[in-house]
């Protein structure tokens, strides 16, 4: 079926939400069909295919991936060409974009491949990038990144990449950090939260939900090197929470006192801590 009003309405709603769940996409699809009952209703995948056909010439695409934590499908409108991260410039200043890139770099380079960064470290490092900001403004900026679904905070205060970042900045992440970010053995999407083989010479990584599906029916061994998967190492938010992220409990709402206390006890606070210790208290 040709692209029509129902597709247009659906796309407008997707522009508003940017990144959303499968359930919400199904709801918006039903809503678009109800609004224009005369149009032939297409199944969701055909419907999205029609929209992507229109978006192709402006280098946009509705794309989905599995949320690395919950395993649920999430959808986003993504740029398919060029410097993806530069496209965020409409919402952030150049300095803020650089600061966001720096946060991603810290997450990707986190100690022990944990793909997460303590909120206190993140705040200090980001503040170093945004030199004209007050610390409160830097906190607000981080809060905005969480609200805009680029970052998520685990329930014990570690920043990790949110599904939107993994979806929309996929090409950027692969170009910049190809060596550090590996694809899941099972689903082939990149893994920033999951499990990896403990064997030093083996590069197998899997999302938790992929491992749960694959490993038990394959002798509980690593599919590439054969070492027992019981010895796998968890990374990303798996390290820091029981699996449930709590977006609302973000570091920026905390008092400086509690941030300081956390910095002294957080196991990962040593990420670049030495480099930062000299200007932690720069206000
Ligand atoms: Zn996977
Ligand atoms: Zn292995």
UniProtKB/TrEMBL annotation:
Family matches, as Pfam families: SMC_Nse1 (PF07574), zf-RING-like (PF08746)
EC numbers: 2.3.2.27
Segments for region (Disordered): 260-283
Keyword field contains Calcium: no
Keyword Zinc (UniProt): yes
Role noted for this protein: Acts in a DNA repair pathway for removal of UV-induced DNA damage that is distinct from classical nucleotide excision repair and in repair of ionizing radiation damage. Functions in homologous recombination repair of DNA double strand breaks and in recovery of stalled replication forks.
Protein name as catalogued: Non-structural maintenance of chromosomes element 1 homolog
Localization annotation: Nucleus
Family, per entry: Belongs to the NSE1 family.
Lineage, highest ranks first: Eukaryota, Fungi, Fungi incertae sedis, Zoopagomycota, Kickxellomycotina
Keywords carried by this UniProt record: DNA damage, DNA recombination, DNA repair, Metal-binding, Nucleus, Transferase, Ubl conjugation pathway, Zinc, Zinc-finger
Top-level EC class as recorded in UniProt: transferase
Subunit structure comment from the entry: Component of the Smc5-Smc6 complex.
Substrates-to-products reaction catalysed: S-ubiquitinyl-[E2 ubiquitin-conjugating enzyme]-L-cysteine + [acceptor protein]-L-lysine = [E2 ubiquitin-conjugating enzyme]-L-cysteine + N(6)-ubiquitinyl-[acceptor protein]-L-lysine
Domain of life of the source: Eukaryota
GO cellular component, one term: nucleus
Species whose genome carries this gene: Dimargaris verticillata
